[in-house]
Automatic annotation (TrEMBL):
This is Trafficking protein particle complex subunit 13. Pfam families: TRAPPC13_C, TRAPPC13_M, TRAPPC13_N. It comes from Pterocles burchelli. Residues 163-286 form the Trafficking protein particle complex subunit 13 middle domain. GO terms for cellular component: TRAPPIII protein complex. The gene is Trappc13. Residues 6-159 form the Trafficking protein particle complex subunit 13 N-terminal domain. It comes from the Eukaryota. Part of the multisubunit TRAPP (transport protein particle) complex.
Length: 401
């Protein structure tokens, strides 16, 4: 071959770490070892016993490549002969398990390459697949005698998974969805978590619950330095609420399983950036049955044996019209005020009605609101609602004090 092909991965340098050799002054070497450390140009002056030095060192091996990072490589073709070669075409492809990508900056051929000259190229690719990757570098050229030459080189490397992401969903009675995302650093080096956000689906708006309000300023619950050490796990919490145009459509919200996707951005070592975006997160759709009853308003604390008001929302989640009758059954502690067995009228599919009710408690403590019954007169079917909510009952003297 007339040409020599060289491929090198471009990575950031690392901080030099020195080997500590020290002893007490009463030992045989005395202060010799300590003095050698102070004279070592790679140590930090005044902190010679720290292994981390002030100098940078170039990578000594290929290193690890993680999903979401940018793979950069330097490609050089050198004319090692004493002849001029013509029509040099350099091509770099990245072969994965599912596709083949062309990474060459230019597809045009170089007219000629003189002896001891070279053609350089730098390629970049954001890694989006886990597993085996093969960098296929091909060179074609023509000699002075008109002979067409061609050769290829293969460079194989593995792409590893940097983060382990687990999600948990909680479907609230108010159509809100709470998402807990557990993110674990499964690499061997610390990460600076630059951003962890949730991009909701079109039917939801999201509120991040990962900050606290201190002195009028919003601070992260993880502190000012959001480093994630190797094998450490961090929990992020989000609250999703259905948008107003979808909130009244009970049947639509009930069947929504796609919530959104997480967008994670981090930095490692000397600012090397990585980014991952999960696939669409899906929850188990809540089963409300044909009729859903939820509490819109209820006081936190009430007086013993004093009436208080609550507001209920009744939603027809079925595909048929219902004719509902409301019954209120007393329990050992909860007593309903009003007429039981009253007609609520017809309720069309995906429609809702708000109902104001009055009750009182004869027992102190945390009491459960129970004893509501809805009967559909069309199908003669009764729906029971117990433990709808809890209310704290105290004596009037305790509340006033």
């Amino acid at each position: 071959y007339f040409l020599i092909f060289t491929v090198m991965r471009l990575t950031k340098p690392t901080l030099f770490t020195n080997i500590l050799v020290t002893c007490e002054e009463r030992d045989l070497p005395g202060i010799l070892f300590n003095q050698l450390m102070k004279d070592d140009p790679s140590t930090v002056k005044g902190a010679e016993t720290l292994m981390l030095g002030e100098m940078l060192t170039l990578p000594q091996n290929f290193g690890n490549i993680f999903l979401g990072e940018t793979f950069s490589s330097y490609i050089s073709v050198h004319n090692d002969s004493n002849q001029v070669v013509k029509d040099i075409l350099v091509k770099a492809d990245l072969q994965t398990s599912s596709q083949r990508l062309n990474l060459s900056a230019s597809s045009a051929a170089v007219a000629e390459l003189k002896p001891d000259c070279c053609i350089d190229d730098v390629i970049h690719h954001e890694v989006k697949e886990i597993g085996t990757h093969i960098l296929v570098c091909a060179v074609s050229y023509t000699t002075q005698t008109g002979e067409k030459m061609y050769f290829r080189k293969f460079f194989k490397f593995q792409v590893l998974k940097p983060l382990d992401v687990k999600t948990k969903f909680y479907n609230a009675e108010t159509d809100e969805v709470f998402l807990e995302a557990q993110i674990q650093n499964i690499t061997t080096s610390p990460m600076f978590m630059e951003k962890v956000s949730l991009e909701p689906s079109m039917m939801y708006s999201v509120a991040e619950l990962n900050t606290v309000d201190r002195a009028g300023q919003s601070e992260s619950t993880f502190g000012s330095r959001t480093y994630l050490q190797p094998m450490d796990t961090r929990q992020y919490l989000y609250c999703l609420k259905p948008k107003q145009e979808f909130a009244e459509k009970a049947g639509v919200i009930k069947g929504v399983t796609v919530i959104g996707k997480l967008d994670i951005v981090w930095k490692t070592n000397l600012g090397e950036r990585g980014r991952l975006q999960t696939s669409q997160l899906q929850r188990m759709a809540p089963g409300y049955g044909d009729v859903r009853l939820s509490l819109e308003t209820i006081p936190d604390t009430v007086n013993l044996e004093e009436p208080f008001d609550i507001t209920c929302k009744i939603t027809n989640c079925s595909e048929r019209t219902m004719d509902l009758v409301l019954e209120m059954c007393n329990t050992n502690s909860i007593h309903w005020c009003g007429v039981s067995g009253r007609q609520l009228g017809k309720l069309h599919p995906s429609s809702s009605l708000h109902l104001a009710l009055t009750l009182l408690s004869s027992v102190q403590g945390l009491q459960s609101v129970s004893g509501l019954r809805l009967t559909d007169t069309f199908l003669k079917r009764t729906y029971e609602y117990d433990d709808v909510a809890q209310v704290c009952v105290v004596s009037s003297e305790v509340k006033q004090s």
